[in-house]
Design brief:
Layout: H1 14-42, E1 55-58, E2 65-67, E3 78-83, H2 113-129, E4 134-139, H3 143-153, E5 160-162, H4 168-171, E6 185-190, E7 196-201, H5 223-228
Parallel strand pairs: 3-4, 4-5
Antiparallel strand pairs: 1-2, 1-5, 3-6, 6-7
Length: about 250
């Protein structure tokens, strides 16, 4: 579909339109760059073989355990795993939940508000994503704690699991040597011979960046920042945003 490049909105000035058209040219180039990077990502050679058939504890339903290999449904050979920081980073002083079972935990043992924001949105996307791929969320926490928090947030679709008894987080850089949890998204595929390979991770988190610059490694799945980037105020500077709750 072609779009008229001379589009106008009510009451706009010539100065506005000139600046907007310059911005539009930059947005077109950004779109091309995003497509180029996505193609480059898809063209990556196979990553390393998954070293273990990790055993996770299910947080929902009747509990139980599930192996990494069992996270691949028949006919769906891609698995996306988001590592949820529960517990949060030790230096995160943002308020925890105000009510519920999770609110009774020491602050250092509560979930990360940023991860919570991501999962609030991702929960609604699960029915769509479940058509082409497998999606799971893991946290190095007690399954009952994860289950309680999911109930408090009214998450209905996410497959939530505990990785407290395996080395998945450490192996796939979602945990530091000091035991701090990290919000990393990893993608895996199943081979024709039944083996499993790592395909991609949000390594932008570990890449060099300017002083004060955020890693933005999971921004593509984080709607709040994408919306704020379209507004005059941008992302703002409020240190406690995003939060568990708002007044």
């Amino acid at each position: 579909m072609s779009v008229d490049p001379a589009i106008r909105f009510p009451g706009e000035s010539g100065e506005y339109r000139l600046a907007r058209n310059r911005l539009l040219a930059a947005e077109v180039e950004l779109r091309r760059a995003i497509e180029r990077v996505a193609a480059q990502r898809r063209a990556l050679p196979l990553g390393g073989a998954v070293p273990d058939d990790y055993v996770f504890e299910e947080a929902a339903g009747g509990g139980g355990v599930v192996k990494f290999s069992e996270l691949f449904a028949p006919g769906k050979d891609t698995l996306v795993i988001y590592s949820f920081m529960f517990p949060r980073w030790s230096g995160d002083t943002r308020p925890g939940p105000a009510e519920g079972e999770t609110a009774r935990l020491p602050l250092a043992e509560t979930p990360c508000p940023s991860c919570t924001s991501i999962l609030d949105s991702l929960d609604g996307a699960v029915p769509h994503l479940a058509h082409p791929l497998n999606l799971a969320v893991v946290a190095k926490s007690d399954p009952a704690r994860i289950r309680n928090f999911a109930h408090e947030r009214v998450w209905r679709h996410l497959r939530l699991m505990s990785s407290r008894n395996n080395s998945y987080n450490r192996d796939y850089h979602a945990e530091t040597p000091e035991g701090e949890q990290a919000p990393v998204l990893n993608v895996f595929t199943r081979d024709d011979d039944g083996g499993f390979r790592h395909r991609w991770a949000t390594e932008l988190m570990f890449a060099p960046r300017e002083e004060g610059e955020e890693p933005r490694h999971v921004d593509l799945i984080w709607p709040i920042w994408n919306v704020l980037d379209m507004t005059p105020g941008g992302r703002g500077t409020e240190p406690d945003f995003p939060a568990m709750q708002y007044e």
